[in-house]
Amino acid sequence: MFSITHGTIYSTKLIVPSFPGSQTQLGNLIDAPVREGPTVWDIGFPDRTAIDSYVPDVNPMYVNKLFLNSPEKFRQYGLCDRDTDIHPESDQVFTIGVNDPKKDWFFAHVDRRGQGQYLPSTWKINFNLNSVTSGSYKLRLAIASATHSDLTVYVNYMEVEHLVFQVTNLGTDNTVCRHGIHGLYRLFNIDVSSLLLIKGDNSIFLTQTKAGDALCGILYDYIRLEAPVTPNHHITND
Questions:
Q1: Where are the domains of the chain?
Q2: pLDDT class for 11, splitting at 50, 70, 90?
C-alpha cells in the first residue's frame, strides 16, 4: 500500500506496473505543498481527511457496538448532527493559540438544527496579529469533503466589502450521510488584502449558507494563513 504524507520524503518504494510482465520503480517521492509566505497560523494536519478534528461521542440512542473501540469513531450514526448538541447557544468559535483542533474543531461544518429545521451556520476563527504586513495574505483552505454546500468567507466583518471567497453547491461526496471522514479533496487559495486586517484581534468567518439540509456539509482538512512575502524571508515547506 502507498500513502501520501504532506511535505514528507517517502522512504517506501512505489512499484507501478507499466505493461504486462514489467514494473517501473519510481523511487522516493517528495510532496511539496503550495506556499508563498510564512505561516501566520494553521488549523489541522494536511492529510486530506478530517480525522485530526474533534469527533464527538455517539448519542447513546444510536450506538453501534462495532465501532465503540474502533479508531474509526466517525462511523457512528448521527455524529454530524451532534454539532448543535455541543454548541447549543451559538456556532463554533475557535481561537488560535487557545483552542486545540482535536478537542474544539468539530469535524464537519453542517447546518444548525433548530425548531424543526436546519439553519445556516457560521464558524469563527479568532487570531491576533502583532503587526500587519502590507500586501496580500494567502488563506489556504483545504477541504477533505463537501456535499451540496454554499460557502462564504469573510474577514473581520460579515459585509460585502469584507467578503474574500464564495462558492455555491460545493461537492457531491455524500460523506455526511455515509459516515465518512474524507471524499474528493479540494484546495482553495484565497487572497486576503492586508487592508482588511488590523494590528491586534482579527477574525475569519466561514459560513455554510445553505439551509434546510441535514446532510449537506463541509469537512475541512487543513487551514493555513500565510503572510505576504518580504524581501528577507526565505520560504520553506514547514
A1: 1-32, 36-226
A2: very low
- The total number of residues written for the chain in this structure: 238
- In the numeric block, the cell 444510536 is attached to 62
CATH number of 36-226: 2.60.120.260
- What is the 3-state secondary structure of the chain? CCCCCCCCECCCCCEECCCCCCCEECCCCECCCCCCCCEEEEEECCCCCCCCCECCCCCHHHCCHHHCCCCCHHHCCCCHHHHHHHCCCCCCEEECCCCCHHHHCECCEECEEECCEEECEEEEEEEEECCCCCCEEEEEEEEEEEEEEEEEEEECCCCHHHEEEEEEEEEECCCCCCCCCCCCCEEEEEEEEHHHCCCEEEEEEEEECCCCCCCCEEEEEEEEEECCCCCCCCCCCC
**First-residue to last-residue Cα distance in the chain:** 26
Confidence of residue 21 (pLDDT cuts 50, 70, 90): confident
For residue 50, count other CB atoms closer than 10 A to its CB: 29
pLDDT of residue 12: 41
CA separation, residue 128 to residues 92, 125, 131, 156, 223 (Å): 18, 10, 9, 12, 16
Contact 197, 155 (CB under 8 A): yes
The C-alpha angle 103, 106, 107, rounded to 5 degrees, equals 110
Phi-psi region at 150: left, alpha or beta (left = phi > 0; alpha = psi -120 to 50):
beta
